[in-house]
Every structure is written in C-alpha cells, then in structure tokens.
Amino acid sequence: MSQSYDTVLFETDDKGIATVTVNRPKKLNALNDKVLNELADVFKAIQVDEDIEAVIITGGGDKAFVAGADIKELRELDNRSGRMASQKGQQIFQLIEDTRRPVIGAINGFALGGGAELAMACHLRIASENAAFGLPEVGLGLIPGYGGTQRLSRLLGRARALEMILTGKQVSADEAQKLGLVNSVTDGDPEEAARELLGKILSNGPVAVRSAIKAIYHSDHQNGYQVEADLFGELCETEDFIEGTSAFLEKRKPEFKGK
Ligand code: CO8
C-alpha cells in the first residue's frame, strides 16, 4: 500500500513494514514546513494503524538523509515564531519517538542539523558508509531546536554532545558508530540492512517488543522501574507469553499473534 504526499513517500509492504521517505532530493531533503506537516500526518496515521509492525525512515535520492531544517525558511523567524517553530518540530519528533513499534532510521547520506535530530528521534539508526552526521547550527548563529541538545546528550553523554554541538563538526559514519550515534554501518543499502534487522526483531513477541520500547524510553524518567514492573506484569497475561514459553518448553518455534 502506498499513500502520496508532496514531499514524503509513505509505503507499507506485506510484512507490515512502513517506509517513510523524506523526498525533496533537489534540496537534499531539507525540512521545510510542508515536510514537517506531512511527517506529522504520516506518523499520526501510523499510530492508529494496527497493521503496521515497524517503520523505516530514510531520505530520497542518493546524497542525503536530511540536510537539516530549510535554511531559507529559518531566515524569516523572529523570537516568537522561532520558539513556536522549535516547539512544533519537537512535538513532531516526539510523536515519532513515541511510536510503539520499532522505528529505524536508514541514514543514506548527510544527516545534518534537523536531519541528525530526525535520525536521533528514531529508535535505532543504520548508516551507509557515505553518511555524515553533524549539528552545524552554531555556525548559523543558532542551536539545535528539534530536541537535538537533549537527545544527543542522552545518546553520547554531555561532554561529547557539547563537543559536537559547540564545534558544529561533521563526523563520518564510522566515527558516529564509535560515538554510539548509530547502531551499525553497512557497505550496502541501509534500508535493506534495516529490513534485515527488523526480520530479527519482528520474529519476537510483538507485544513484548512494544513494551520493551516503552520501558527503555522511561529510563529517562523517575518512574522507569515502576513502568518496567507494570509492563512485565501485563505481559504475563498475554497469549504471546503463553506461546513463547510453551514453544521453548516444547522445543519448537513460537507462533506469536501479537495478543
Ligand atoms: N536548507 C535549505 N536548502 C538546503 C539545505 C538546507 N538545510 N541543505 C541543502 N540545501 C539546498 C542547497 O541550497 C542547494 O539548493 P540549490 O541547488 O537551489 O542551490 C541544494 O540543496 C543542494 O545543496 P548544495 O549545492 O549545497 O550541495 P553540496 O553537495 O555542495 O553540499 C551540504 C551539501 C554540505 C550538505 C550543503 O548543502 C550544506 O551545508 N547544507 C546545509 C547544512 C546545514 O547547515 N544544516 C543545518 C540547518 S539548521 C537546522 O537544521 C536547524 C534545526 C532546528 C530548527 C528548529 C526551529 C525551526
């Protein structure tokens, strides 16, 4: 199934894997207001579509994942509209992070500024060898505004986040992996590598996978242990739990129903 937007391609395959492609290749997929609105629409649709098991986000063309927020639009902002634009982007990226199905960023080129922030809003990131990451906002007299100061600090630790953001330097895919910014680097197509990884993830109990994402993101909150215990208890009453444990004891492969 595919749905058409002007700047975002949205397709779902027969395994329930949705691919969301930011598609403005002539502008290196820069995030203008239209792209952000369409991303919000797509992810609102994903949240309520029970047939979608996982999501891959990637960039159109062969040069960029997303080269940042659209600098032409940024130029028009003042204090009030700038704050609002930052909050709007933060909310959309939070919507992506809150997807209770695995979201993998297939980073196929430049992931700069808002593009690096979009990558960080994904649960997992796989980069192509030519990918490059950076938060160059200070060079434009700005700071990251789509949650990047927060997510980069959580992913890399404060010292490394400070170094990347204060220098605005770009790092290669290999360096990004060493820093913990991406999970892996592939010499092939990162979208294919994401599908391969999803093959492993989606063979597990679907309710457990969703609960694990929720619990892990609660490690940022004070009640993380409580959320973990509550979800653990809920899982103990699922059909998937009965099936997973029975399959182990009966020495066979489980057939999960996602219930
Ligand atoms: N915004 C708008 N247009 C862009 C952007 C961008 N971020 N990036 C590239 N483009 C456009 C170029 O202007 C060019 O358009 P045209 O052909 O019409 O001149 C086209 O894409 C191709 O780009 P280049 O010719 O520059 O391609 P190169 O291969 O020479 O260079 C680079 C590639 C190095 C990626 C270069 O394009 C570049 O430096 N781009 C800007 C990167 C950047 O600074 N990104 C950060 C932007 S700031 C940001 O993301 C803030 C996020 C938080 C905002 C919160 C509140 C709103």
Structure description:
The chain has 259 residues and is of the alpha/beta class. The protein has 2 domains: 2-201, 2-enoyl-CoA Hydratase, Chain A, domain 1 (Alpha-Beta Complex), CATH 3.90.226.10; 206-249. The protein is 46% helix and 17% strand. The chain has 11 helices and 11 strands. It has helices at residues 33-47, 71-74, 79-97, 114-121, 148-156, 158-167, 173-179, 190-201, 206-217, 224-235, 239-249; strands at 2-4, 8-12, 17-22, 54-59, 64-66, 103-107, 110-112, 124-128, 132-134, 170-172, 184-186. The strands form 2 sheets. A 7-stranded mixed sheet has the order 1-2-3-4-6-8-11, with helices on both faces. A 4-stranded mixed sheet has the order 5-7-9-10. Helix 1 (33-47) links the parallel strand 3 and strand 4. Helix 5 packs across helix 6 (158-167). The radius of gyration is 19 Å and the shape is globular. It starts with a strand and ends in a 10-residue tail after the last helix. The mean pLDDT is 97. The structure holds octanoyl-coenzyme A. Octanoyl-coenzyme A binds next to helix 2, helix 3 and strand 7. The site of octanoyl-coenzyme A has 24 residues, from helix 2, helix 3 and strand 7.
N- to C-terminal distance: 24 Å
Number of strands: 11
Bound molecules: octanoyl-coenzyme A
Going across the major beta sheet, what is the strand order? 1-2-3-4-6-8-11
Class inferred from helices and paired strands: alpha/beta
Q: What's the pLDDT, averaged over the residues? A: 97
Largest sheet: 7 strands, mixed
Quickly count the helices: 11
Family: Belongs to the enoyl-CoA hydratase/isomerase family.
Pfam families: ECH_1
GO molecular function: hydro-lyase activity
Keywords: Lyase
